[in-house]
């Protein structure tokens, strides 16, 4: 068949187009095959050496600018703790970042946000994302805000908050939840967190949990409990994370009855009992005064972590049950659980509170010899505390002077308190003056020196220290005592008249004073650090917060029932002595938690035995 010139041209054009199309289809198929091959290799990649091999493979196949492959490469690198390696590849001079999309940047930002030491790079990547005009989406900001939370930079968090509003994601519940968490990571941001929380149109259990957890972490335990009650009224079902935060708040407040209610609520609502939640229950019972329940709960656990063992050991230490704490530690070692540095802090504390000086020395030596644990300042602090409690002041001072690490102010203050308690006042004065030189703006150092001068009856020097504190704008932390009654937490301070029952409370305090004096109580007026006569000193002692809380409890609880109180500072020796008398006169067991430990008063005796 003969074709005209025009027909031959048309046929040639169709043939050429078909060839080009076939070639394009073939190339496209090859690219997809190569892409799938790389994705499969990355899926199976579980070592850094394999990752570098896949990296080479990507370059050979020309996929170094393929967003899908690069995204998978980044997530795999993150899983192998090699995100910096991925970043150097993604942003090398040869990279064509114009092809990068939101999903790829989100993956990089998330990877950096999840690291322990490179969260700031997540912010850098977010800024780079905006620089390249890649628009963030609602999945971008939870990662960016988590990075801000880890950096604990309020101004940075506020800046990102502004971007969230600018891009219109301020009503997304997941973004809002992370924002609440971010603001809760610093004391200065907690009110901003509450503002975001209160303005949320829609909340889920994560929203409530973030806010409750923020309050609990920052020591605003009453607010955490109050918000939890609002959560119940709102009909939102809490998860185990919420319950851990609520239990933490109960622990801080010493609110045993509330803690018991939380336990029953967990059972009733069938909240999943994770190991973390079980550990929180153990910690709550131990630190709210019912260490036997903590032990019972511990024994019922099928799975135990080092935190489980540590919580019980620390609880026993706080209650002065050092021999049981030591026995539990030995049981832990026998079970094959490897101890860490934290459990040794609990163990040494147990030895300290129970006067087990020789055992404490042995365990301190055992840390390095048997388990390769290098003692930290907390372990040295426990040893100093143990020696001081045993009255071995000279040995404690020698121990401090021979420490291979610099003693911190806590160690020195422990030694100073012991000097004051055991009459080594000149030594205490010398150490305190040295401490003030190194820490001139720490108010507790001046309080210590003031107390030493009061013990020396040197009122002139004491007054001079107090005047110096006033000049520097320093204030002593006021002592307060909390008590839980009828689902409410009541707080008392010295000389408190704010309670609506204060008249009856003060009448009960007077009655307690008369009954105690008849039983042989002599007020420890040396505890009153004021240059006033003894009668006024006794009046001052009678209105200490501990006595007011106990009087309130005697008025409002049935005879013979236990009284539980929590003191924010260390109980003074006069209140300690008075509480012994009160326990016997009124036939009450009184469980007092102060800053250092528990005191169980019963029949005129205290569990601590060696109070100083």
Automatic annotation (TrEMBL):
Keywords: Repeat. Residues 520-612 form the DYW domain. This is DYW domain-containing protein. It comes from Manihot esculenta. One of its GO terms (biological process) is RNA modification. The keyword Repeat applies. The lineage of its organism: Eukaryota, Viridiplantae, Streptophyta, Embryophyta, Tracheophyta. PPR repeats lie at residues 101-136, 204-238, 274-304, 305-339. Belongs to the PPR family. PCMP-H subfamily. One of its GO terms (molecular function) is zinc ion binding. Pfam families: DYW_deaminase, E_motif, PPR, PPR_1, PPR_2.
